UniProtKB/TrEMBL annotation, chains A, B:
Lineage per the UniProt record: Bacteria, Bacillati, Bacillota, Negativicutes, Veillonellales
Protein's pathway: Amino-acid biosynthesis; L-lysine biosynthesis via DAP pathway; LL-2,6-diaminopimelate from (S)-tetrahydrodipicolinate (aminotransferase route): step 1/1
Organism: Megasphaera paucivorans
NCBIfam families, per database record: DAPAT_plant
Reaction(s) catalysed (UniProt annotation): (2S,6S)-2,6-diaminopimelate + 2-oxoglutarate = (S)-2,3,4,5-tetrahydrodipicolinate + L-glutamate + H2O + H(+)
Keywords on record: Aminotransferase, Pyridoxal phosphate, Transferase
GO molecular function, one term: L,L-diaminopimelate aminotransferase activity
Protein name: LL-diaminopimelate aminotransferase
Cofactor field: pyridoxal 5'-phosphate
Alphabetized InterPro entries for the sequence: Aminotransferase_I/II_large, DapL/ALD1, PyrdxlP-dep_Trfase, PyrdxlP-dep_Trfase_major, PyrdxlP-dep_Trfase_small
């Protein structure tokens, strides 16, 4: 008899974005003439850069001729793309990588969801709270957590790292292993029979989704020290690095000393080049990042991720890899940067406009996300409903990203300029802040 | 301390196709003038159909304009493609599917490797022997098997279904659950403390990779009965269905009564439309396929696969889904069929030519693969070496697909006509069979 993986049943039934979609659809049906502006889902709206379009047309033509047709490519990706990544994303920042340390994927979601497969089932992991849900959900489904505690909105046996106004929304490493886990960084006491002295894996998203805040090199250095002391691994998602505008915020964790011993880095073209529907990403697994067998033999995670990819993935489409390669051409770089600048201008319009209207706004400086405090301690969902009904603006409730997101909304800068300006005006005009 | 997933260490270090590649590279270096013909890896060589190329150019242009740009698509795939699949691959054969029963993927390798995630860790699965390695390896890595037994070339706690000349290379359901598992379909006795009355999951590849043979509707009906009796699930890989030429071989398992209650079907455009480097596939999970909780509550696997895809995958690229859609246009169907016919003509050239030279050849009638018996009981690898050295032809040793592949070679029909004819001549000219 086939049994299901019951870990899936731990997932709460109502998905954040499905709930939002339903609320918007209901509102839309009742108010068919409302001009709804969507600043909720983090999806880009600007078309692909002309250099990318040109490269794809060329690659499509190659696939139509026997002499230039490409069948199975390397599971790890083509070197023509890997070499550009190393040259432009790393060498320019003084980071040296070998070609076999970069793995091309079909999206950072897949990559961050599947990385947990190469680790032992009995590991303990930490996530920021609030956080991009995939880190958590993928581990829930793989059985790396306990049950969901409805009242608290958290899973048992997961170490949550609260990101609050007090700490600038920055996940901090446990300062003392036992004490910090039990008292500070955990939303509930760790059961006494579980001796969790520290965490094995830490998911860090920098700049952060959803808060839009970013950790500095010094703050990351503290994490690297922690990882080295405890032999933990940092899973570093820098999907939003192209939105960084401040000099002390690193674009890659490998800009920080020692990171190549403890960190795996995830990158995506979704937000840097508008690839949300085009699908390309990469993972950097330096050969110096080690994990251990039960008998304490050190093994390079590079060979494990390589084996995972070779068995469970057959490479990103050739045409798409050529598209990503074009992002690094001179034209491609300029065109993609222009789009990022356009979105960042939107981010500033949201940040400055709402601040002028009296709101407390975080993020939106090194990130396309603004993290807006609700007025008068309103609950996230209540403020979401109010903005939908009164301003016809769709946002994302902060509490959907974790309990410490309560009292905030996430607004994204990926709309058109016109809609962004209009949305800010509508929210300001509600005059909710005295 | 981060620990690795030690299940990965069970995988033998030498990968079949890496070993072949090394042998060919060594030979090539020593014999730089040898004109090597590769009939080893199952990769297509003919360019994409003009209808597919046209559709991709159009989709690329859409991605370059704001009005037609596409961001995140549905994780399950676009309905424009799902509707074509249902119309052409299923309705034409009298099979009715709902749009939410079809999930577009980025390749059947990913799909078949990841399907095990939705099942309970303590399941027992069966695979044909010889078999496409991904079914096995993905389960090894997920911890669903015991150790690899070097001497036997099998993993503990896996039920192998021998495919031999005697049974026409067709995996048969265990006739009596306990007896059959222990004595007939298993390469070694099941430990007494493991009460394996039956298997929970069965991987069936039809037509088979590597043997090129195919099961009839009646033979599949026996599997469906077995699955219904034991509440097992059939994971049916029909990646090669477009090569079927005989009328009683089903293209879909749903052509057989009752399959929609027990079978998940995997399809790929890799071999039917030359998409090995373009990457598109789909999985059919009828809502009527059920598995069970530990407390015996039945749950539809459709919702589990949907959740898996929504969490761990972000959809196949829009451009690629438009490419797959074009396979179903009138031009696309004709052009793709012409390519399949071309490869099948190669398959017949291999089959008929080697049979004329005295070889025993299976497959190559409903499949692009010929399964060739080695002369004089030669070992697979010895015959592989001999053909490389004397005929400069690369093949795949049958033993690389499992112990019951010993004594066979797999030859693929995906070369050019000229090379295929030349390879057969060279092998025949060796006059190895008296």
């Amino acid at each position: 008899m086939a049994h299901i993986n019951e870990n899936y049943l731990k997932l709460p039934g109502n998905y954040l974005f499905a709930t939002i979609a339903k609320k918007v659809a209901d509102f839309s049906q009742k108010n068919p003439n409302a001009n709804i502006i969507r600043l909720g889902i983090g999806d880009v709206t600007r078309p692909l850069a002309p250099a990318v379009i040109e490269a794809m047309h060329k690659a499509v033509d190659e696939m139509g001729k026997a002499e230039t047709f490409r069948g199975y490519g390397p599971e790890q990706g083509y070197e023509f793309l890997i070499n550009k990544i190393i040259e432009w994303d790393y060498e320019t920042r003084g980071i040296h990588l070998d070609t076999d340390e970069v793995f091309i994927g079909d999206g950072a979601k897949t990559d961050v969801a599947c990385i947990q497969e190469i680790f032992d089932k009995n590991m303990t992991f930490a996530v920021a709270d609030p956080v991009y849900p995939v880190y958590l959900d993928s581990n829930v489904m793989a059985g790396h957590t306990g049950e969901f505690i409805d009242l608290k909105g958290v899973y048992k046996d997961v170490v949550y790292l609260p990101c609050t106004e007090e700490n600038g929304f920055k996940a901090e490493p446990p300062k003392d292993r036992i004490e910090s886990m039990e008292l500070k960084n955990c939303c509930f006491p760790v059961p006494a029979n579980k001796k969790k002295e520290h965490v094995d894996l830490v998911y860090l998203c920098n700049p952060s989704n959803p808060t839009g805040t970013a950790m500095s090199k010094e703050e990351l250095a503290a994490w690297i020290s922690y990882a080295k002391e405890t032999n933990a691994i940092l899973l570093y998602d820098s999907a939003y690095e192209s939105y960084i505008t401040e000099p002390n915020i690193p674009h890659s964790i490998y800009e920080v000393e020692g990171a190549k011993d403890v960190a795996i880095e995830f990158r995506s073209y979704s937000k840097s080049a508008g690839f949300t529907g085009t699908r390309c990403s990469y993972v950097v697994v330096p050969k110096t990042v080690l994990a251990y067998t039960a008998k304490n033999n050190a093994i390079s995670l590079n060979q494990f991720w390589n084996r995972r990819q070779c068995t469970c993935f057959n490479g990103t489409p050739y045409i798409i890899q050529r598209a990503a390669e074009a992002v690094y051409s001179e034209k491609g770089r300029n065109q993609c940067k222009a789009d990022v600048d356009y979105y960042m201008e939107n981010a500033h319009i949201i940040r400055d406009g709402l601040q002028a209207a009296g709101y407390t706004v975080y993020g939106a400086t090194n990130s396309p996300y603004a993290w807006v405090k609700t007025p008068a301690n309103m609950k996230s969902w209540d403020f979401f409903d109010l903005l939908l009904e009164k301003a016809h603006v769709v946002t994302t409730p902060g509490s959907g990203f974790g309990p410490h997101g309560e009292g905030f909304l996430r607004l994204t800068a990926f709309g058109t300029r016109e809609n962004t300006i209009e949305a800010v005006h509508r929210i300001a005009d509600l005059k909710l802040i005295k």
